[in-house]
Fold this protein.
Amino acid sequence: MRSARFDCPSVRLELGQLLKQARPSGWLGLALAAALHFSLTTVKGITQQEKAVKPLTTQFVKRAPRLTKPLEMKKRPQPKRRTIRRKMVSIEARASGRQGLSGERPAHTIRGLARPTAHLTRKLAVEESAAEPHAMAQQILGVKEVKGSMDLSAEMLDINALDTGKYHAIIIQDPNDKRNIRGFFHLVRAYSVSAKPDRNWGQGGPYPWPKAIPNLVETINKYTNIRTDLGTSVTFDKRELLATPFVFVNCHWYFRLTPAEAQNLGRYFLVGGFLLADDSFRFKGGTSDLALRGMIIDGMREAGFEYKKDWDFERLPNSHAIYHCFFDFPDGPPVGHDGDIGDSYHPVYTYYPYLEGVHIGERLTAIMSNKEYGACWAGIGSGNRGCKDTLRQLQFGVNIVIFALTQEGSITYSVMDMVR
């Protein structure tokens, strides 16, 4: 029997029954707490993830090396190309007989070309022209003989390297040996636009004897060291005429230079050009004789020299240097087809058995020939007294060319001065 001494109100409590009743509530509370804890943990993690601070990092930056002086890139300036136009200035003077002016000649100023000058012994009066400036030619110290001024002082000169088309001729000559001569020459034929083809011989073109100049070129190459070829043909009004040192003109019929051709021919005479006019009718007063003389007269008038007052056609003596500058012709010019005049085939005409020269100062600038050398050079023989084998006539042609190239005051002489 259980004692009631220790009985209290709690004795009647059933702990097991209470535990059984409280267990569901406890599990429910635990579940709620766990759910609450889980939900709080998740929300806090999202908040921390959004507000997380980027961790500190170290960044290494490689800097470019510093120069002691700043490097400046500058574009090298290129010069602008400018087109330069050369203008040819004509300087003219008209002759007058009112007063004399000794030792002076009018001249044209030709830009881009050498300007030979002349000291004259004849007297000429000059009138001032208000329309354009005037220039007076200076002194040329020269004679009609070749003095060997184109000597071998340029022996080391590479002549072939200078043959670029700029110069028509460059010549080097030994003053102690007239045969020791070398260089190059591009021979240019000139004609007037009014020259008509030959009607009797049917040659065509302005040259009665087309083979004359090619045969002369071949002869120059054969006997000399001057490398020669045949250049293009030009009319007298072309500027190219002013650069070639020698031109050959022959004709059968009458022609007359145009004003532009006459003016350009006058300039050609003044700058040192040399003209060989060959009459293919070979008698005084014939059509070609009048045409060629009129051509020279017109050119000299445009140069400022009046015919019969300031100059004239003068006979070249047999002692002239043109007969001895390469081959020797002690008796003067060789006979051409003029030797046939007076035979049974040719009527008797008045002709010139000599050559006539035209001078500006002491410089020989033109030759007038009535010997029809063009036919001889073309290989056309003639009668008993004319040119038979044509060799001597071709050799004299070589003399004329060499004299024209080496004469003091010529175009080639001036070119050699610039080259030196």
Summary: The helical segments are 15-50, 159-162, 212-223, 259-270, 287-303, 373-377, 391-406, 411-419. Residues 15-50 form the longest helix (36 residues). The mean pLDDT is 75.
